[in-house]
């Protein structure tokens, strides 16, 4: 009960303790992967959409200018997630929506551990709390078939919100209501077409090679991203008769994971988010190292770093794709002013 003070003690007969879900922020992971690739010579082009692809190139559209270009390539890998079938119609996906609620951690007695609540009628399915470093806790998640056109931003439905509250509340000391929900977000799992309930479809990844050599990698987990990349590159090397040395992914750290000492002035929070780069995030202007607000530990200096070193171009990049502030509309409104100032100072 000391570790999980937000849990309802009635009828509690025991507990088990484990360590899982240590990803600090998926936005940070994706940014770190892109920057690490750039370190090894990749050219990373954001806001560029592939319109058509073959095994030997792609037609792309620049989202800023609208210009289209033809790119030639020795190999092409289609890694567009739930949109993969738009580039290769031979792929058949059956998207499944996963929705999370966002609450302030204080609504759960500031519990900093995950609590799993079993979903009635299912074996091995849970709704769980996921405490974040910024004082919020996510509660997820659903698994709902999501056919039809793929939206850019899927949204939570009312029945999903009810399901999540109804499943988690019986194990909590204090009942959460809709008033406690400060945000919601949803994503679509790119599951390969199969019979049965979407929650039963395999979460393993698939690598598919088209007759012209276009390789598609789809499905899988964030946790297995290196294995997915390795399998996709191996398939592309085979399909396009390329030569390549042995895979070095297992021993290649991402930026920020080097053992170089970080600046001692950097806070533990910055070190968790930026690793050995934490010192570089600190601003020479001490006022930019202060949290944006009592509810928002992100500092303006983090926005500066994103604009200078992480390819962020606008406010949405800062609030949605370099941090996750945008998940809470009220926090977004507060941070938007600071983000706008940072963008205009940089441009
Ligand atoms: C709700 C939910 C919960 C999940 N929970 C977990 C979890 O707890 N643990 C775990 O390990 N995994 C989890 N996953 C799975 C994980 O998020 C995915 O496996 C992972 O994001 C897949 O990565 P991806 O790069 O293949 O696709 P995506 O992350 O979808 O990336 C595809 C990218 O391609 C871009 N794109 C699309 N079309 C084009 C185009 N035509 N041209 C250019 N770019 C394009 C998109 O903008 C996007 O950035 C979860 C997924 C969901 C939806």
Automatic annotation (TrEMBL):
Q: Which residues form the signal peptide?
A: none
Pfam families per the UniProt record, alphabetical: DAO, DAO_C
Q: Which family does it belong to?
A: Belongs to the FAD-dependent glycerol-3-phosphate dehydrogenase family.
Co-factor requirement: FAD
- Residue ranges of domain FAD dependent oxidoreductase in the record: 3-224
The first-level EC class reads: oxidoreductase
Q: What lineage does UniProt assign to this protein's organism?
A: Bacteria, Bacillati, Actinomycetota, Actinomycetes, Micrococcales
User: Key word Plastid present in the record?
Assistant: no
Domain (Alpha-glycerophosphate oxidase C-terminal) spans 247-337
The source's domain of life comes to Bacteria
Which keywords, in A-to-Z order, does the entry hold? FAD, Flavoprotein, Glycerol metabolism, Oxidoreductase
EC number(s) reported in the record:
1.-.-.-
Q: What is this protein called?
A: Glycerol-3-phosphate dehydrogenase/oxidase
Keyword Oxidoreductase attached: yes
**Organism the protein comes from:** Flexivirga alba
- Name a GO molecular-function annotation: oxidoreductase activity
């Amino acid at each position: 009960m000391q570790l999980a003070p937000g849990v309802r003690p009635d009828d509690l007969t025991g507990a088990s303790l484990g360590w899982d879900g240590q990803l600090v922020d998926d936005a940070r992971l994706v940014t770190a992967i892109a920057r690490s690739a750039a370190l090894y010579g990749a050219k990373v082009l954001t806001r560029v959409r592939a319109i058509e692809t073959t095994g030997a190139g792609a037609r792309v559209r620049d989202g800023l200018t609208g210009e289209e270009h033809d790119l030639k390539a020795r190999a092409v890998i289609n890694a567009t997630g739930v949109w993969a079938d738009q580039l290769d119609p031979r792929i058949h996906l059956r998207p499944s929506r996963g929705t999370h609620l966002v609450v302030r951690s204080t609504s759960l007695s500031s519990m900093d551990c995950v609590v799993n609540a079993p979903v009635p009628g299912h074996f091995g399915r849970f709704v769980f709390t996921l405490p974040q470093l910024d004082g919020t806790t996510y509660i997820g998640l659903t698994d709902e078939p999501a056919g039809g056109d793929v939206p850019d931003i899927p949204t939570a439905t009312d029945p999903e919100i009810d399901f999540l509250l109804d499943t988690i509340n019986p194990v909590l000391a204090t009942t959460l209501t809709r008033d406690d929900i400060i945000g919601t977000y949803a994503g679509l799992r790119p599951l390969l077409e199969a019979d049965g309930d979407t929650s039963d479809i395999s979460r393993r990844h698939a690598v598919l090679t088209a007759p012209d050599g276009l390789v598609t990698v789809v499905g899988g987990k964030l946790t297995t991203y290196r294995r997915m990349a390795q399998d996709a590159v191996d398939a592309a090397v085979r399909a396009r008769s390329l030569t390549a040395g042995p895979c070095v992914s297992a021993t290649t750290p991402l930026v920020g994971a080097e053992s170089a000492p970080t600046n001692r002035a950097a806070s533990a929070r910055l070190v968790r988010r930026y690793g050995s780069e934490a010192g570089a995030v600190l601003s020479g202007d001490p006022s930019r190292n202060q949290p944006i607000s009592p509810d928002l530990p992100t500092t303006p200096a983090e926005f500066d770093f994103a604009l200078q070193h992480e390819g962020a171009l606008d406010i949405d990049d800062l609030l949605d794709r370099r941090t996750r502030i945008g998940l809470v509309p009220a926090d977004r409104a507060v941070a938007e002013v600071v983000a706008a100032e940072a963008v205009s100072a940089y441009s």
